[in-house]
Amino acid sequence: MFGGGGVSVRMEEEEDEVGWCSSDSGDGDGDDDIEERKSQNVDALLRGNLVVKRQSLLPRLLSVSQGAAVCRKPFKPPCSKSHASASAYNQDLTRKLSARKRFVPWGSSSPIPIPIPRSALDDSKFNVAVAVADVAEELKPSLPPGIDPLVLWHPQDSEDANANFTTITVDPLLVRYLRPHQREGVQFMFDCVSGLSTTPNIHGCILADDMGLGKTLQSITLLYTLLSQGFDGKPMVRKAIIVTPTSLVSNWEAEIKKWVGERVPLVALCESTREDVISGIDNFTSPKSNLQVLIVSYETFRMHSSKFSSTDSCDLLICDEAHRLKNDQTITNRALAALPCKRRILLSGTPLQNDLEEFFAMVNFTNPGILGDIAHFRRYYEAPIICGREPAATAEEKKLGAEQSAELSVNVNRFILRRTNALLSNHLPPKIVEVVCCKLTPLQSELYKHFIQSKNVKRAITEELKQSKILAYITALKKLCNHPKLIYDTIRSGSPGTSGFEDCIRFFPPEMLSGRSGSWTGGHGAWVELSGKMHVLARLLAHLRQRTNDRIVLVSNYTQTLDLFAQLCRERRYPHLRLDGSTSISKRQKLVNCFNDPSKDEFVFLLSSKAGGCGLNLIGGNRLVLFDPDWNPANDKQAAARVWRDGQKKRVYIYRFLSAGTIEEKVYQRQMSKEGLQKVIQQEQTDSLVAQGNLLSTENLRDLFTFHENIKSEIHENMQCSRCQTFDGPRSTEAQSTITDSESDEETSDIGGFAEIAGCLQNLKRSEKQVGSPLEEDLGSWGHHFFPTSVPDAILQASAGDEVTFVFTNQVNGRLVPVESIMSPKLQQKDPKKELLKSKQNGKQKPTPFSLHNRLPLQSASVGITKNISMNVAFKPQYSLVSKVLPQKRSCPANINDDN
Ligand SMILES: [Zn+2]
């Protein structure tokens, strides 16, 4: 996870070696997920029902919706400064647009004509019919009927007409195979590399289409066109270099031969001896050579880059899997950047993560200087954009951030094209994401305060300290938030991480420990209640197991936390499976198959967030808990995608547990606004970075190690949320009356029907409903819940107890109508005995808003399916020393028994 130089500290020292196959792994190696998506895309392409939609290369920060998303631009003469008349523009534009209306499926010899509507042709304003006829006659194409030629450039009928300009048209050999979006892509790249872009200094482009949409064919089409044609009749490109990962060199060679046969003389340097490589390169660069294309790996290019310093060694550079150029400090990147060739095409199938610096590196490689230098970029774009996304940003900062983001989008969308299959997301059921803030237990609070007040931590804040130390402290606090047992283990082992927890054994309740040896016994299951999050999780599992047939995935960064999950499952006799870094590849698939097998009585899947990345399909579960926030937001996102993916039939619940007022809220908050702490911390401390807020200042560090003990949610507090202002904090039951007036449609809609099914739709206040369809990082527009009764999830309502202090919810729509969970109505009645026990144990507790719900029966919606669901009573089992007997072994998940 720690890419790039500087500090080489492992964030979690005991962690598994296997990382997520994150989209930026950059190796172009087989990722099951990508392969799966690719085959779906190719499938749709072959069936002829592919619908593409344009997207941003940096999806979380930039958009393509602000203008400039149009691929097509009117023809423009390459040299003439004169502007063609509007009518000529329109004519050319229409000619092009009409040309892309037909296609044949890949691999098929029978074309599928898509008729151009007569009305469009008859539109005298554009005079289309004449234009099309002109072109057709001029070209005499040997195209099958129904396929229109693809004219990339056409000389204007202007004063330049006597210049020696010729039409540039894609060879019929290739155009017959191009799908509409591929025609568009070829045109887009042509406009960029031939200097036809309306923006000066654009000579390169990034084609970032999703896997399977045909980036290779589009590039080969352009390559072949430029090697044979040009504005003045002479080829625009004499020599081209294709740089690719080693594993793809021969693949490129085969693809070129497949599409254009022997028409392009090329040399591919693959598995050659050093002598062969050198002679191959010399052969290619020699002025007398007839070789037009060199295919070479990144490594080979880097080793021999000096051989390409001559200005005429290359007229077109194509970099495949180009996301590896996101770091401009690598030797390979610098060697390629130094190549005296302006026309650069970068191919990449994966969007970048939330990182503007990597984005800048790729853009600056493609079109050097187009966004100014890095200092200007940081000041002008990056700082305001990041600042505007901080939850605590002022309205002014947000506005500036949005403006700069829009401006940057418009600028880069002129030369970055990314399309995805618009239909792929349609097969998913609705999803709800719940950020659940839980308070620490008294023991956790005690240890937390003790630690942050220790002299080591104080010194860390005030003095210049090794970054590794700070990371170790953060890790210690994160572990404490998960469960004090993790800290106990650390202290007992006497490992260096103990500093700050000296003498802390005395805080632990003696009943957890064996009297003689002092080793951990867990107090016959009572250990669960020593952590706020774990306590909530235990109730959540119990309710799920008793009332539904849902299965759940539990994710943590720490194998020790997985150990605790496993112990919980054993004690409660829940069937469970575990996958972490030590699980062999062959075993992984067995575990996955087992979990997804409906005939088996499986319930919990324990997953290490570092081990379970790619290809894991856990659609047997429709609920997933992210127990601790990861440094890298992409990891959390990928974990959530294990269950919300093709094949999932049920509605999906993603829970993100955070300990209120602690480091976890801060980590998550930074995830949402910046690239996480990871990068921030690892950077070398320089004045310029501090000035831009890219580094943790003393103030930042102090904030990081501050504990807001009684806060419901620090993130919410920092928002200074205007939506909740009227009833911030505990409110009386009278205040529960619903505000129904002046609500907009957006606010009233219950996306995915979660609130209705949970029986709380009728009672929701405005602040408890999300505003429209907010982005993941826009927590301000999510539903805000001080009370569990309003959370559109019956299971969480019942499981919240006194530990949950605040919940953010975000409902996401899916086109798939979900198969509803089987929920048992049996457990609506409270067990009087249990209630008695509970009231004895809870005697000392003060009612907080989240505990009020136990006394407030919900009004279940009296329609349809909700009748069958038990929501009315917030059933709250108390798993303490007495409750080990509660959930018992069952043979069938749907067969619900209350053992009491
Ligand atoms: Zn609010």
From TrEMBL:
Residues 196-369 form the Helicase ATP-binding domain. The keyword Signal does not apply. It is found in: Nucleus. Residues 1-35, 727-748, 823-853 are annotated as: Disordered. Residues 536-697 form the Helicase C-terminal domain. GO terms for cellular component: nucleus. It comes from Glycine max. Its main location: nucleus. Residues 828-838 have a biased composition (Basic and acidic residues). Belongs to the SNF2/RAD54 helicase family. This is Protein CHROMATIN REMODELING 25. One of its GO terms (molecular function) is helicase activity. One of its GO terms (biological process) is double-strand break repair via synthesis-dependent strand annealing. It comes from the Eukaryota. InterPro entries: Helicase_ATP-bd, Helicase_C-like, P-loop_NTPase, SNF2-like_sf, SNF2/RAD54-like_C, SNF2_N, SNF2_RAD54_helicase_repair. Keywords: ATP-binding, Cell cycle, Cell division, DNA damage, DNA repair, DNA-binding, Helicase, Hydrolase, Mitosis, Nucleotide-binding, Nucleus.
